[in-house]
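Appendix B. Raw example, untouched.
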Amino acid sequence: MSSSLCKQAGIPHHEPLNSRRDFLVKAGMGFGAIAYSGLAQGSTTVLPPAHHFARAKSVIFCFMEGGPSQLDTFDYKPLLNKLAGKPLPESFKEPITAMGEKGAPILPAPRTWTRHGESGLLVSEWLPNIAEHADDLAVIHSLWGNGINHAGGMMQMHTCTPLAGRPSLGAWVTYGLGSENENLPAYVVMKDANKPLASGARNYGSGFMPATYQGTLFQNKEGEPLANLAIRQGESSARQQEKLKLLKQFNQEYSLGREHQSELDARIRSYELAFNMQSAAPEAVALEEETAETLSLYGIDQKETATYGKQCLLARRLVERGVRFVQLYHGAGSRWDSHSQIEKNHSKLCREMDQPVAGLLTDLKQRGLLDETLVIWGGEFGRTPMSEQGNGRDHNPTGFTMWMAGGGVQGGQTIGATDELGLYAVEDKMHVSDFHASILHLLGLNNMELTFHYQGRPERPTINEGRFNRKLIGG
């Protein structure tokens, strides 16, 4: 009955009720408008509370893309040399590998192994500088995952699953903890070469979460890590303000009815951040402010170590200024992938990376930052004990090594173990989901309590799996 007929008959008229779906959509849009309104007027970041005591405030993840060999760096296996050239013993089940040669013989690891520090941690001669920090390292020998190729391995090490589409670890950390500096990105990504990563930008993407949580890629470019950041020559501050005001007006008009589009919200926030960064970022990336002694510490005065040294130093400057998560890719373009010529490949890459990473640990410690900064080292998987192409190693996700330092981690220890040939994790096995859960725990976040509701279900960073390994803190 129409409203006019109801009025004539003296019957109260009620408009038709909207469906529950309509209510939720409209309510969601309303909250989006509130958020946008706050942004347009200039907002203050309110950090959400952590779930428990946080041992670390920030993370620097030194990622060796392509998969470094644990057998030639941290996981000493003397049986490799004894069985060199022989087939894998029958007691070992040959793994399913991405590109391996079935029945390939054992490849020796002709390394010189030395015990370092009071802990007596064994490290090969390829990493003499990192070895000096033996008592700061918690070396995990028993990592394992499900990705047998680079795309799947990279996806899992970044998002906890080999399948694309989920938020990266850095995005979850940013979502859970926010930023301590409104003038810099909370999540920064750097590569040592302008080459594509396996799985591309999805490694540091936000997946189904709002795009504002994705990593900000700093360019591998001298003097300008972020494009178009500087004010154009000849343009006044007043002129720029007018342009930003007009741009904000356009965005406000376009956002009406589209509040559910996270890309638009991320773009709006990026304009605000970019404006703030025009004063903060140049100072943050000004490596020329550092002493010659500091530059030398990171190897920036040497051609071979200069590139990654600059990125490690920049990472220190960023976390010092409140950046929450910094991802540093070494070997971008899967250069650690050594299906052949592993001696040539790994010895070169270790020289490029060893001093910068050691310099980072030294510098953080000298400045009192290591206790609150969690430094992580490793790749998407390790390498096999069997040879490939006669002088290389294949992918090995079934047992490999990574390490942590700082951030409340107890150094000078090894956790877990692989078998006597370094093929499978056999003791205190730690899946990638456990690894992520442990990183989150050190930051004060419970991987089962950190949730993001998507399509009617609560999503968690470790997909309802993963446990904190208390041995990392001496438990």
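End of appendix B.
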